[in-house]
Amino acid sequence: MFSIASVATMTACIFLFGVLFSVIMNVDSVRRDIEEKVGVTVFFVEGTSEERIAEIGEEIRKIDHVTEVTYTSADEAWENYKAEHFASNPSLAEGFKENPLANSSSYTVLVDKIERQKAVVDAIGKIDGVRQINQSSAAVQNLAGFNRIFTGVSIAIIVVLLVVSAILIANAVSMGVEARSKEISIMKLIGATDTFVRAPFVVEGLILGLIGTVLPLTLLYIVYNGLIRGLLQRLGFMGRIGDVLTGAGHVFAVLAPIGLILGLGIGLIGARITLKRHLDV
Amino acid sequence: MIDLDRVSKQYEHGQNAVDEISLHVDKGEFVFVVGDSGSGKSTMIRLLLKEIEPTAGMITVNGRLLNTMRHRQVPKYRRKIGIVFQDFRLLEEMNVYDNVAFAMHAVEAPGRLIRERVPQVLHEVGLSEKYRSLPRQLSGGEQQRVAIARAIVNNPQILLADEPTGNLDPRNAYEIMKLIEEINLRGTTVLVVTHNKEIVNQFQKRVIMMRKGAIARDVEEGGYIEA
Question: Is there a contact between B79 and A183 if contact means CB atoms under 8 Å apart?
Fold first, then answer.
């Protein structure tokens, strides 16, 4: 009875752990994806020479957490703008005799972590010759904040569930130990070693841990795979959705070993805790 | 073989179960330890098994000082000692053969040796025919024979018996004691804790009388004399 209860709790625990882990991985993947795309755009004071702009580029590169600095000249900016906004009607753009973005050469700066963006922006703001800095990181920062809170809450839930599982497995093993306490005491009195006495109970704990891990992981793999396939089919038109979502193989390459270590560890610890007092004879 | 030097054992509630007892038992000797309930007889057995630690004094068995023996060395030490209890302590779901074989499995004896030795010991205790029986199918005397077979199957140097005839009728009690005497005659040192006067008087062995945790009398080839 206790064995079923402990395996069921363990299954629920590892399943929930897997769900939370998958969500965290995917939210993080989306965040990284946005992070990679969202940069800071730096504009210069009117009349800044090409040499000074190059120096500013070097100074930005030296700031901590800056991963990439890309220069866009005023002409390139105008070409990009035309391609983006006048693609369907190029004749409209021809109305402009001069480059309306003549003063819009810029650097696009990427940082390694979105949380660092504010510090980087502050540092760039102090560079002589910088007129304006555009950043559009609010959404990404919100996402990062959400992921931090979600990860914290998930870890707390998982720790509580793992402790409950360990206690239940210890209880399940304890029932077995109590039922066989006579056998254990005889074994000890006739010279059986602790390892010999402990072995069957440890194996029992490991088996409970293994079942309680393999069952939810298999279930989760099927559900997750189905969910990803479903999303790709329904949202495939969004093009990049497949790149942003984390594939089942990738999630389970990390989740399976962690789950197994947790499951077997809980089984082992549960069994050892229970047996300790019976072996001190 | 067994040396107790001013050994005391005080339990947590403060009572001295054994109080400064000194005792020497030679190799191959047969000793009865007698006394009323609470006189310290069973505590002595538990001390010799290193199930409990003395509060004071030194215990030496087979030249080994038990006081300094580490927990991991205890199993090897216990393999030299056979133990028989009043309530037999057989495993109910195992048959006679398996109950005896269990003692050999516990000390990780090879299977070949177990298959050879168990029938031999069952023959010695007169249970060859009943090797398939479960404990509940046996009489009290037969169950104690199984317990004795289990105690001697690993060829111990010492046999400790705690009230081995306590649950038996006089005829079975006598037969069990005869069996233990035969084991002693083959060279095993035997220490029997009992309060069965008839048995002690019949066998005329060394008798150590305990009272209130102390040795009140120690006589060679004596009877059960009230202290």
Answer: no
Q: What is the DSSP letter of B214?
A: E
Q: What is the mean pLDDT of chain A?
A: 79
- The answer to whether residue A181 neighbours chain B at the CB level (below 8 Å) is no
| A30-53 mean pLDDT | 80
| Coil vs helix vs strand at B141 | helix
Interface of B with A in 93-152 (CB under 8 A): 102-103, 106-108, 150-151
B70-88 pLDDT, tens digit per residue, is 988 999 899 889 999 888 8
When CB atoms are compared, the residue of B51, B79, B91 closest to A191 is B79
What pTM value is reported for the model?
Answer: 0.65
CB contact under 8 A, B103 and A183: no
Predicted confidence at residue A278, as pLDDT, reads 67
CA distance B8 to B58: 9
- Chain B residues whose beta carbon lies within 8 Å of the beta carbon of residue A190: 78-79, 82-83, 103, 106-107, 150-151, 154
Q: Which CATH architecture has domain A39-135?
A: 2-Layer Sandwich (3.30)
The residue ranking higher by pLDDT, B168 or B96, is B96
Q: Which residues pair with B4 in a beta bridge?
A: B23, B59
Q: How does pLDDT run across B111-125, given as a tens digit for each residue?
A: 999 999 999 999 999
Contact B106 A281 (CB under 8 A): no
> How far, rounded to the nearest angstrom, does the alpha carbon of residue A22 sit from its chain's CA centroid?
8
Contact criterion met (CB below 8 Å) for A106 and A56: no
| Model pLDDT, residue A138 | 65
Chain B within 8 Å of A12 (Cβ-Cβ)?
no
What are the start and end residues of each CATH 3.30.70.3040 domain in chain A? 39-135
DSSP states along A15-48: HHHHHHHHHHHHHHHHHHHHHHH--EEEEE-TT-
Q: Is the ipTM of this complex over 0.90?
A: no
| Residue of chain B nearest A196, judged by CA positions | B106
